Amino acid sequence: MSALDEIQASAEAARDALDTAKTAVLAALQAAQDKAQQVAGLGLAGVAATVQAAQSSLEAAASALGAGRDAADSAVTGLGEITSDAGAKETAQNLGGVLGHLAQAVSGVDAATGSAHDAYSHAQRSEIDSLVAVIAAAFNGITTAKQSLHDAAGKTEAYRQHVESVAQGN
Questions:
Q1: Of residues 131, 155, 134, 138, the one with CA closest to residue 13
Q2: Is the CB of residue 36 less than 8 Å from the CB of residue 51?
Q3: DSSP assignment of 18-66, as one string?
């Protein structure tokens, strides 16, 4: 497997981790919706409002993960467009574009992390253990996605620097 193939696989793994994280957030969102209805039906308006705040934060997290996933997909596409026929300078430039997409994906994950943290805090205040647990699982998925993105970006940057070094005759 070539270095570029390894980077491609790493970027694809990061994209997949974003999909997994978004799925977990959407599951937490569904749980929050269900719990909000349940506690509202019990007449616990304050708890329902707290759960609805968690729900809003989870919606923001899902949206941010969607944007991050789109950026990661653009990175994967950009890597796929790098051919063995391209020159070193062109390859380094294309890798720079890929790094830009990965940075956008990290920004999306960072936003999702903040929103998920807010959702977790709201869930804790609601004192609904099952909701706290499902949001914690979603938060763990987001953390895994962030680690995968950093791994892909690190490999891409190292390869870009190596290609630039070759292009400069070093």
A1: 155
A2: yes
A3: HHHHHHHHHHHHHHHHHHHHHHHHTT-HHHHHHHHHHHHHHHHHHHHHH
Backbone phi and psi for residue 139, each to the nearest 5 degrees, phi listed first: -60, -40
How far apart (Å, rounded) are the C-alpha atoms in residues 126 and 118?
Answer: 12
pLDDT (tens digit, 9 = 90+) per residue, 63-114? 999 999 999 999 999 999 998 888 888 999 999 999 999 999 999 999 999 9
How many Å from the N-terminal Cα to the C-terminal Cα in the chain?
24
The CATH architecture one would assign to domain 3-167 is: Up-down Bundle (1.20)
pLDDT digits (tens, 9 = 90+) for 14-70: 999 999 999 999 999 999 999 999 999 999 999 999 999 999 999 999 999 999 999
169: burial class by Cβ within 10 Å (0-12, 13-18, 19+)?
exposed
How far is CA 79 from each of CA 5, 21, 53, 66, rounded to the nearest angstrom?
A: 9, 23, 39, 20
